């Protein structure tokens, strides 16, 4: 057992190694992942999965499912990306992130196999292999696995033991890799569907559903469309939502926004499929799992005075959801927006959507090589949106300035990128 200081040193070295191959970027194909997993004696083959792809909502849906499965008594793994506060959040067992010590051990074990391969795995491929090995070591009964990007060529798609595939809301994102229409992106996402295994689909435009249905027919996979018609909102406030879903009355959900009810319906439909496949998930586990689910950085209230909301939405669909939430929870109120974004996003469209709700903007530079500098974003907002915008050198400074500008009775909304949410939460003291 390492002492605390040694673990701290080792975790820094482990993360440095994991991130050291980030320069490889995204390289389509499963050959590197399969080669690495074979060296590790294929840990993924010892596991069962719920595999989730989509543009928006896949993380929230995964968190709901993992919470319900955990409350049903199953040892449940959760694999997601990116993280908010610490890298360890990407691999969780029964709601607890992997410890520093376990992550160090995993890195030491996997590193020589990865380094010996003729073609080195990318960063995401390396992390995925480590995640599967961790879940095998932890003897998970089931793993809720979120796709990194796309579907058919995503590193997670090496898995075969899929109890159920889930495809959430699909929109335009990562078009360089996935295609420039939602139908093309849907074909990529449908790559996670496995022959003969059920697929649950979040309801969406007919042309997208047709693509998923065709893929399911070709693979002999039953397609189950999420039952949005069974949803009936009961109450909705900044403290959380209550809703009915068919015969399940008075369900509680701490996640805010109408879109989260649709994600919940998708998760509940998936629970129904898992039950049909023999998983014992009682109503009590469904109720408690939904009531306890945590998924930070998605229209999350961090503080009451001034009201401080964090939302990591970073594409047009996410911003549409943010617009709807602002209208529902803060009708007629003007906010101070604390914003940062990636330079390769359509930030013009993003921030035009926020203009009707904005009193002023404070801009920051998220901690990411692709980030748009705060001063460039500030200049764009000032010149194009004709609203006051002040750049800040740090996220913490931005939080302080936005809070001061809002005043005790005002409201701040931090948005534009998940990559800044961790620093925002730390600065707010959440």
Condensed summary:
This protein has 430 residues and is α/β, with parallel strands linked by helices. The protein has helices at 4-19, 31-39, 58-71, 100-116, 123-137, 175-178, 182-189, 206-219, 258-276, 283-292, 316-329, 347-354, 374-385, 395-406, 421-428, and strands at residues 49-53, 76-79, 91-93, 96-97, 142-146, 162-167, 199-201, 223-225, 231-237, 240-245, 248-253, 300-303, 307-311, 335-339, 358-363, 389-391, 411-415.
Features:
single chain; 430 residues; alpha/beta; UDP-N-acetylmuramoyl-L-alanine:D-glutamate ligase; Protein-Tyrosine Phosphatase, Chain A; 2 domains; eight-stranded mixed beta sheet; six-stranded mixed beta sheet; 15 helices; 42% helix
What does this structure look like?
The mean pLDDT is 92. By secondary structure, the protein is α/β, with parallel strands linked by helices. 42% of the residues lie in helices and 18% in strands. The longest helix has 19 residues. The protein contains 15 helices and 17 strands. The protein has 2 domains: 289 residues, 3-Layer(aba) Sandwich (UDP-N-acetylmuramoyl-L-alanine:D-glutamate ligase), CATH 3.40.1190.10; 129 residues, Protein-Tyrosine Phosphatase, Chain A, CATH 3.90.190. The protein is globular and about 55 Å long. The strands form 3 sheets. The protein has an 8-stranded mixed beta sheet with strand order 4-3-2-5-1-6-7-8, sandwiched between helices. Strands 12-13-17-14-15-16 form a 6-stranded mixed beta sheet, sandwiched between helices. A 3-stranded antiparallel beta sheet has the order 9-10-11. The chain starts with a helix and ends with a helix.
């Amino acid at each position: 057992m390492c002492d605390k200081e040694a673990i701290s040193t080792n975790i820094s070295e482990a993360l440095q190694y994991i991130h050291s191959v980030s320069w490889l970027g995204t390289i389509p194909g499963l050959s590197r992942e399969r080669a690495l997993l074979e060296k590790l004696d294929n840990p993924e083959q010892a596991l069962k999965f719920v595999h989730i792809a989509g543009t928006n909502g896949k993380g929230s849906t995964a968190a709901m499912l993992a919470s319900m499965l955990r409350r049903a008594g199953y040892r449940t793994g959760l694999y997601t990306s990116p993280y908010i506060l610490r890298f360890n959040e990407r691999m969780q067992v029964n709601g607890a992130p992997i410890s520093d010590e376990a992550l160090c051990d995993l890195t030491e074990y996997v590193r020589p196999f990865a380094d010996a391969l003729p073609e080195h795995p990318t960063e995401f491929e390396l992390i995925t292999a480590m995640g599967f090995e961790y879940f095998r070591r932890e003897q998970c009964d089931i793993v809720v696995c979120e796709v990194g990007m796309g579907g058919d060529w995503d590193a997670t798609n090496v898995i075969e033991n899929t109890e159920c595939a889930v495809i959430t809301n699909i929109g335009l994102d990562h078009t360089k890799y996935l295609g420039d229409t939602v139908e093309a992106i849907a074909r990529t996402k449908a790559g996670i569907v496995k022959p003969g295994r059920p697929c649950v689909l979040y309801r969406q435009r007919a042309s997208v559903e047709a693509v998923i249905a065709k893929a399911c027919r070709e693979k002999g996979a039953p397609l189950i469309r999420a039952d949005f018609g069974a949803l009936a909102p009961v109450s909705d406030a900044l403290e959380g939502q209550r809703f009915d879903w068919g015969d399940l009355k008075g369900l509680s959900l701490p996640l805010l926004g109408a879109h989260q009810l649709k994600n919940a319906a998708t998760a509940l439909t998936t629970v129904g499929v898992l039950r049909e496949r023999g998983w014992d998930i009682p109503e009590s586990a469904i109720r408690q799992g939904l009531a306890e689910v945590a998924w930070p950085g998605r229209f999350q209230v961090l503080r009451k005075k001034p009201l401080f909301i964090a939302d990591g939405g970073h594409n047009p669909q996410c911003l549409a959801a943010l617009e709807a939430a602002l209208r529902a929870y803060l009708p007629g109120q003007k906010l101070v927006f604390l914003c940062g974004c990636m330079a390769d996003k359509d930030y013009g469209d993003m921030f035009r959507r926020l203009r009707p709700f904005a009193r002023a903007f404070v801009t920051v530079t998220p901690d990411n090589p692709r980030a748009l500098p705060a001063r460039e974003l500030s200049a764009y907002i000032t010149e194009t949106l004709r609203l006051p915008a002040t750049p800040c050198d740090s996220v913490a400074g931005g939080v302080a300035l936005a809070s001061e500008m809002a005043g005790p009775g005002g409201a701040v909304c931090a948005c534009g990128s998940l990559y800044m949410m961790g620093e925002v939460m730390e600065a707010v003291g959440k």
